[in-house]
Amino acid sequence: MNPQDKTNPDIPTGIDLLREPLLNKSTAFTAEEQDELGITGLVPDGVDTEENQLSRVHLQLSQKSADIDRYVYLSSLQDNDETLYFKTLMSDPAHFMPLVYTPTVGEACQKFGHIMRRPRGLYISIKQKGRVAEILRNWPVDDVRFTVVTDGERILGLGDLGVNGMGIPIGKLALYTACAGVPPEVTLPITLDVGTNTDSLLNDPLYLGLRQPRVRGQEYDDFLEESVEAMGEVFPKCCIQFEDFANINAVPLLARYRDRVCCYNDDIQGTAAVAVAGISGALRMANSSWKDQTFLFLGAGSAGTGIANLITLAMIEDGVPEDEARKRCWMQDVNGLLVNSRDDIADFQKPFAHDHEPISDFVESIKAIKPTGIIGVSTVPKLFNQKVIEAMSEINEQPIIFPYSNPTSRSECTAEEAYKWSDGKAIFASGSPFPPVKYKDRTFVPGQGNNVYIFPALGMAIYATQAKRVTDKMFLCAAAAVAEQVTQENLDSGLIYPPQSSILVTSLHVAKKVAELIFDSDLAGVDRPDDIGAFIEAEAYKPDYRSYV
What confidence tens digit (pLDDT) does each residue in 415-473 have? Predict the structure, then answer.
């Protein structure tokens, strides 16, 4: 479809055009376009400029009293005029990302059935097993390149939200576009509805999912197998991002499909990459190297082991033998330090279980292991308490403190707590945003270890190159590309990530680097261009209205 060709019969006219968010220009249709497209009188006579449209959006947002209300407004804007929606997001990404994704999306998911205005994406129920390909063909776009898929069992740190988890795929795909230029028309959010074990949802008359306990075992595996196979059949150039699956499914899913189809798990691999990028910035700030680091994780799920695996790869690249690199990563869960004498350790955790006496107290683990950095992926708030931060500060001149759990209510500590309790020594980054902190005579700008630095850029590289597979080396490459854009001025203010205000520039640079690796690895589905940077720029979506005359 070429929307610029007004004679194209695929272009709707009249009221149908105004109801198509990818084509609608709202109040920006010219008088000539109104006549040509049969919408004269269906829109006001005044023709808005881009500046007027953005001013109206900002005015209406300013009149909302809560972020959840702003989220609902922006969702309605996306459903009505997608170009204006992305124009808004891209006008000030640092301001709008927390409204369309974390932390606001957490509350939106909890209330999803209560705030829904218009369905978006595909909902595929396990009761429709055997018909997945048929349902995928109901989607109006044939050339889907990216789908974010969830079964809603582990939404952020909030747990099993069933189909309410659809807010996550919708939000993530919006950031693919807003932060890296992946065209919105090639993206598709999908929720696989296999039930929920959350009683409050099952008893909520406004809940929109299956009212049954979660399906487990072979029936679940067969449904996932059919779904993945069907996506490859219906959308052969599509990359699948597995999102917010529980640990019992997330790790096996990635292992099962990563060498069969183009796919990845952002919770495992994207989180790992943003953590490695942050550590790289921290090492520059501390004038240190990978060889000198030891990390202790609070939380030993798929996110923690994913970070540890990529840290291991980064250390190997820095000359540390693999066995030694793995021994530099320690894990602690609700039952204490992961040590080989325990009999409750999952297979994916075993590479990071070491010979040591059992320790149940996290502070005691810090004193015994003497880590240079602690990384929180527990989803339990306030576990990095004053004793923890003080213990880290006693053994490190500049302790790395990364409370990565989302949303903000689940963060292991706040930025203010980390700086205060470490007497300003901490190198800090968190999963959710925190405001600048004044402590003594310094103002610290906390970094947000947000996966948004990684997955949109990776997606842009995959989209442009039509990559056949996604590898761990791509994530390590993305992490390095993010880290190299941190300036000395950023570091001096305590910031170990590039400013989110320049996320599009950052992402296109990362996409270029990852695309180079894809071509070098012979994984691209298109010919290598002479100028990869220009190639990426040309493929990137821009929020400009089409001309219809």
Answer: 999 999 999 999 999 998 899 999 999 999 998 998 999 999 999 999 999 999 999 99
Residue with tokens 């008893």: 203
- Give, as one character, the DSSP assignment of residue 100: H
How confident is the model at residue 455, as a pLDDT? 96
Domain limits, the chain: 14-98, 99-261, 269-450
Phi and psi based region of residue 34 (left: phi greater than 0; alpha: psi -120 to 50; beta: remaining): alpha
Alpha helices in 407-544 (DSSP H): 415-421, 455-465, 472-483, 488-492, 503-520, 532-539
As its CATH architecture, domain 99-261 has 3-Layer(aba) Sandwich (3.40)
Q: Which of 25, 71, 87, 101 is catalytic?
A: 101
Is 172 annotated as catalytic? yes
**How many whole angstroms separate alpha carbon 27 and alpha carbon 21?**
13
What is the per-residue burial (b if ≥16 Cβ within 10 Å, else e) of 526-537?
eeeeeebeebbe
What is the CATH number that goes with domain 14-98? 1.20.1370.30
Query: Span 269-450: which CATH code?
Result: 3.40.50.720
Name the pLDDT band for 494 (thresholds 50, 70, 90).
Answer: confident
Query: 3-state SS string over 287-330?
Result: CCCHHHCCEEEECCCHHHHHHHHHHHHHHHHCCCCHHHHHHCEE
- Res 104: pLDDT: 94
Distance CA 433, CA 415 (A): 9
pTM: 0.91
In DSSP notation, 145-171 reads -EEEEE-SSSBTTTB--GGGGGHHHHH
Instruction: Please state, in angstroms and as integers, the Cα–Cα distance from residue 450 to each residue in 18, 101, 161, 194, 482, following that order.
Output: 35, 10, 22, 29, 12
Same fold across 14-98 and 99-261: no
How does DSSP classify residue 142? S
Apex 154 CA angle, 149 and 155, nearest 5:
75
List 374's β-bridge partners, or say none: 296, 401
Structure tokens belonging to residue 455? 């997955």
Cβ atoms of 302 and 267 within 8 Å: the answer is: yes
Q: Which of 25, 87, 172, 512 is catalytic?
A: 172
